[in-house]
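Support request from a user on the community tier.

User writes: "When I paste my structure tokens into the form, the page sometimes reloads and wipes my input. The last time it worked, I copied everything first. Here is what I submitted, just in case something in the input itself triggers the reload:"
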């Protein structure tokens, strides 16, 4: 079941400019030389395609699609495909760059990429979405490849779309190419643990940060904004470790319970009601804007970009923010968060559990051998904990917030790799 995230605020900052603002700060701290700076600041390739699709009424509609490869210095580019009516090129560029930094932070051999199609998948039939996905795949047939560029699901897409993409690509190659895409159904080479991987990474990051702050999970409270796949799994896994989840939200509204929400029951309700919490009786409705500023220990924004901005950051009361979404905090809000002494585990670290297990799926596909769920989870948690420690150490060494420290770790790795490979 696809989950429709809440719409971003109307006056959001340009996401690519926000990414570059943080990149520039980290580059200055590192003393990055001009050559490497110029190579890393811009995408390697940007592709815009027009995709004619025959709709169910027999008319042909042309959709605009994007694929941005930010970097292939560490290895083949990797990143999801987003189906949404408000997708635009700078957003895709920012997401591709964030993928580069995520892969570098968790030390896996990928560069970053991202794709998108301007469409509303929730108003389209399964047949229309399938034809769109196959046509998009054919438009980028010379871009995709297990050793070149590896797509994955994102907002508006899931295992079903990845299965169609894999099948269409395989037809052109005359053989089944499982490793061309990740996030596939298990029966088509998907990995155990992939569905919950991003949420698990958020939980691991939260536990590591709480330990640094001296916070006892059994005495801590949290809210999770966005109850899609990432938010629901993060809430479930945090609750299992003792954190009391007081508030959750989705496109239907925000829900609060002073005694703690039964996350298992909320997930069951959502799954039985078309992926939405509308009508959920286990909590009281509240203003969604107040959820972000509620008096709790941990805030997990797990919906869309730019929900924490200069308009609401002064009111945030949490001691810790763990970013489950990509870019949920605007650049202009960073300084205020830092002044308030709030620790932020940034998106390029906190939600990199997804790409980590995507990497595991790709490895298994190349090996032709499946790992157990226990092995997947143990290795993913080890990688996430090691990445957290690297970023935390960098924040202490350079006396910078965790967000800038994550960029420093990532940029330093990509820059060193670039130099060892000999540059251009």
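"...and here is what came back when it finally went through:"
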């Amino acid at each position: 079941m696809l989950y429709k995230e809440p719409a971003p605020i109307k006056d959001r900052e340009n996401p690519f400019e926000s990414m570059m603002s943080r990149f520039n700060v980290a580059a200055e701290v590192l003393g990055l030389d001009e050559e490497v700076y110029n190579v890393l600041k811009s995408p390697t390739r940007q592709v815009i395609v027009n995709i004619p699709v025959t709709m169910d009424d027999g008319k042909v509609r042309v959709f605009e699609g994007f694929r941005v490869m930010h970097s292939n210095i560490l290895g083949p580019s990797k990143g999801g495909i987003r189906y949404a009516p408000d997708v635009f090129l700078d957003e895709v560029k920012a997401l591709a760059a964030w993928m580069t930094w995520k892969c570098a932070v968790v030390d896996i051999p990928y560069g970053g990429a991202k794709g998108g199609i301007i469409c509303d998948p929730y108003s389209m039939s399964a047949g229309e979405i399938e034809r769109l996905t196959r046509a998009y795949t054919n438009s980028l047939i010379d871009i995709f490849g297990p050793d070149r560029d590896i797509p994955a699901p994102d907002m508006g897409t899931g295992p079903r779309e990845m299965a169609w993409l894999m099948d269409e690509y395989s037809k052109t190659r005359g053989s089944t190419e499982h490793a061309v895409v990740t996030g596939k159904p298990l029966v088509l080479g998907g990995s155990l643990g992939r569905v919950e991987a991003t949420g698990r990474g958020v939980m691991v990051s939260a536990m590591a940060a709480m330990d640094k702050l001296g916070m006892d999970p059994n005495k801590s409270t949290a809210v999770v904004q966005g109850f899609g796949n990432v938010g629901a799994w993060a809430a479930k896994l945090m609750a299992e470790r003792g954190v009391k989840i007081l508030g959750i939200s989705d496109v239907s509204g925000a829900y609060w319970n002073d005694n703690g929400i039964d996350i298992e029951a909320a997930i069951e309700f959502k799954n039985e009601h078309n992926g939405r919490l509308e009508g959920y009786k286990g909590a009281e409705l509240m203003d969604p804007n107040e959820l972000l500023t509620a008096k709790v220990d941990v805030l997990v924004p797990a919906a869309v970009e730019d929900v924490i901005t200069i308009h609401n950051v002064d009111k945030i009361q949490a001691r810790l923010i763990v970013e489950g979404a990509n870019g949920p905090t605007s650049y202009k809000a960073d300084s205020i968060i830092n002044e308030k002494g709030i620790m932020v585990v940034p998106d390029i670290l906190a939600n990199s559990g997804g790409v980590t297990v995507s990497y595991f799926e790709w490895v298994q596909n190349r090996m032709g051998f499946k790992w157990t769920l226990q092995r997947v989870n143990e290795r993913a948690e080890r990688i996430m904990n090691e990445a957290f420690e690297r970023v935390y150490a960098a924040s202490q060494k350079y006396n910078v917030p965790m967000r800038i420290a994550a960029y420093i770790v990532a940029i330093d790795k990509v820059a060193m790799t670039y130099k060892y490979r000999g540059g251009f």
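Agent notes: The reload is a front-end session timeout and is unrelated to the input. The chain has 14 helices and twelve strands. Confidence is low (pLDDT under 50) at residues 1-11. Escalated to web team.
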